[in-house]
Amino acid sequence: MTEFKAARVLPDHLLANARVLPTRNALIPLLPRNITFCEVGVALGEYSELVLDHGGVSKFIAIDLFTLHEYPEMWGGRIGTELAGRTHAAYFRDRFADELAADRLQLLEGNSTDMVSLLEDRSVDVFYVDAHHSYDAVAAELAVIKDKIAPGGWIILNDYIMHDYMTNTPYGVVQATNDFMIDENWEMLHFCLQSGMFCDVAIRKVVD
Ligand SMILES: C[S@@+](CC[C@H](N)C(=O)[O-])C[C@H]1O[C@@H](n2cnc3c(N)ncnc32)[C@H](O)[C@@H]1O
Hints:
Layout: E1 19-21, E2 35-40, H1 46-54, E3 57-64, H2 78-83, H3 88-95, H4 97-101, E4 105-109, H5 112-117, E5 124-129, H6 135-148, E6 149-160, E7 163-164, E8 169-170, H7 173-184, E9 186-192, E10 199-205
Parallel strand pairs: 1-9, 2-3, 2-5, 3-4, 5-6
Antiparallel strand pairs: 6-10, 7-8, 9-10
């Protein structure tokens, strides 16, 4: 059994400007405008579509392993049904054909930290982190993201929860996020509730 590691307690000053929202979707209209947005772990693009539909995103970078076609039985068989014989990347390209044609969307296929490393420093306004949810994976992603984020940019982390009770999988998102916030001086801007408490948090670097 995996040993449980409690998250470090966030100090008051990193929570003073935090606002609670009812859902992650409620955060989308509050995003800065004319931004470069990078979603790390897009799956079938459900959240990507909501963000792109919002209209405030000039450039959208979609990072994923793009290997979901290897798991057609996942999500109760929904993956196989939706992909309908296409590869994961082909499905995503079809779904967002207009965005690709308009040169508004870039796909980066591969491991999250490797793909984020390819981005220019200080070039992304908002990262949405929703790939592997282990402590090591999230900590590694945050370690590369911090050089890629533009001044004043946001990092949103999905599944800010200790344990996935649906699949009985321990998560490390809370511990990795809190460590990053404390060690790198990032404050919480938004805490987005979710009906099963698979919450999101949006964080921003404190200006010294
Ligand atoms: C929970 S799903 C993302 C859901 C999506 N953000 C949404 O809200 O609609 C997680 C995705 O992360 C991808 N993923 C998992 N581990 C990864 C890694 N190490 N590097 C890149 N992508 C990864 C999976 O392929 C999957 O598509």
